[in-house]
Fold this sequence. Notes:
The complex is a heterodimer.
Chain A: H1 22-29, E1 42-48, E2 53-62, E3 65-74, H2 77-89, H3 95-99, H4 103-110, H5 119-137
Antiparallel strand pairs in A: 1-2, 2-3
Helix pairs in contact in A: 1-2, 2-5
Chain B: H1 7-12, E1 20-21, E2 24-25, E3 27-28, H2 39-52, H3 62-81, E4 89-92, H4 95-107, E5 115-119, H5 128-137, E6 140-144, H6 154-160, E7 165-171, H7 183-192, E8 196-200, H8 212-215, E9 219-223, E10 234-238, H9 240-245, E11 256-259, E12 264-266, H10 280-296, H11 298-317, E13 322-325, E14 334-339, H12 344-353, E15 356-357, E16 359-361, H13 366-372, E17 378-382, H14 389-405
Parallel strand pairs in B: 3-15, 5-6, 5-7, 7-8, 8-9
Antiparallel strand pairs in B: 1-2, 4-10, 9-10, 11-12, 13-14, 14-17, 16-17
Amino acid sequence: xxxxxxxxxxxxxxxxxxxxxxxxxxxxxxxxxxxxxxxxxxxxxxxxxxxxxxxxxxxxxxxxxxxxxxxxxxxxxxxxxxxxxxxxxxxxxxxxxxxxxxxxxxxxxxxxxxxxxxxxxxxxxxxxxxxxxxxxxx
Amino acid sequence: xxxxxxxxxxxxxxxxxxxxxxxxxxxxxxxxxxxxxxxxxxxxxxxxxxxxxxxxxxxxxxxxxxxxxxxxxxxxxxxxxxxxxxxxxxxxxxxxxxxxxxxxxxxxxxxxxxxxxxxxxxxxxxxxxxxxxxxxxxxxxxxxxxxxxxxxxxxxxxxxxxxxxxxxxxxxxxxxxxxxxxxxxxxxxxxxxxxxxxxxxxxxxxxxxxxxxxxxxxxxxxxxxxxxxxxxxxxxxxxxxxxxxxxxxxxxxxxxxxxxxxxxxxxxxxxxxxxxxxxxxxxxxxxxxxxxxxxxxxxxxxxxxxxxxxxxxxxxxxxxxxxxxxxxxxxxxxxxxxxxxxxxxxxxxxxxxxxxxxxxxxxxxxxxxxxxxxxxxxxxxxxxxxxxxxxxxxxxxxxxxxxxxxxx
Lengths: 138, 408
């Protein structure tokens, strides 16, 4: 049997949508809550070593609820937009509710389906927020 | 350019270039990460599996003889490719393993007062192994600085290299800056203090003719997969007298002449350094890659890549807000750059949708990118013989699109 296989012509794989949608670009160019919080209850920093995204999240808590959230950092549009949207989202949420947020919730928040490589960028903000909350218990 | 070098025919030799990306033509500009394989390499590996696959230097049956002969033929081809002797060619799994094993072997003779000199532009594979050795035994690690234009500061080299220097390990062509370092001058410097010169040739082996005697380095490491060969195979070249004295750092089957329960005696060169079953098909594929490159002619490969790189540098410098890193002339076909205010990941993602594959990040050279270039990450394009001026034109169009998406 001759095996003259032609290369896989058109592999879309787990295709990402066009991820640079209006809302993502808006949050990247005009990030919400993008400042330091001097009187914060907790703060925590995380990074993606493979690409250089870095996020620091500041949380002000009252009765186990987030009453204010801010962030600083640098990175790609997805990571920054995600942090901007997340700090908006978690205001008013309890710590328990935040810890229950899933990857799916973040993708819904962003409004795009991220491929395997960019997933880390999109989820960095959530990872930072959850680690911030977990660091408090210690 | 010789008559046999025809870019049209070269492109036809690489089946993967027919793959469509989001229905668009693949423009592969990431050969510094890994190069594509020509059909002759793919066929050589397949044919080995189909006709000659057996372990080598062990059994005496027909298949084993065939495999052994083909394997050692591949070694001879590689030796000839860099003007070395076959017993000076040690097969490894790649540049990283070559440098790790060498560092381990050499570390046995290093003392606390000794010095190891590297440069600021090293890939992690030629930085971290030496860094870890310096931590364990205590030799001092020093770095030759970089000039603002991305070239190596040779005046600083003369200061950093002293009578205490035992090893100088330098990249030949930087995978970030494209800088091609002057190995013969570094060899002279090393000789003047009786130090060993180790060269990381992972990039340069695929861009220019390499003659280890002309370079006069003591060791030269490279990988198959960046020179159109398979991944998982690489080479450590060492001068025969040095390899004869050097103790192996990897032990097991195939590298011994005698083993008792108490101790072992090592085999002859080069097998002394090749413990375990090697990447059989990898070596065969590497031999086929050498054949392919010889057919193109490495001088012609070098001229072609130089011309393409010059064209790319000219076209890229016309883009507003684009900053290029590395020297303007005398550089390899590797160009790192940044678009102001745009993260390399985002630039890469938008180019990807146009079928254009580039690299974004710190290129396994974190200290170079973050401390010398003062960037968080960079974009990088790199060329091989299957790239054309049209590829560069499409890249420029794509970069303009990136600018559009992110304009304030």
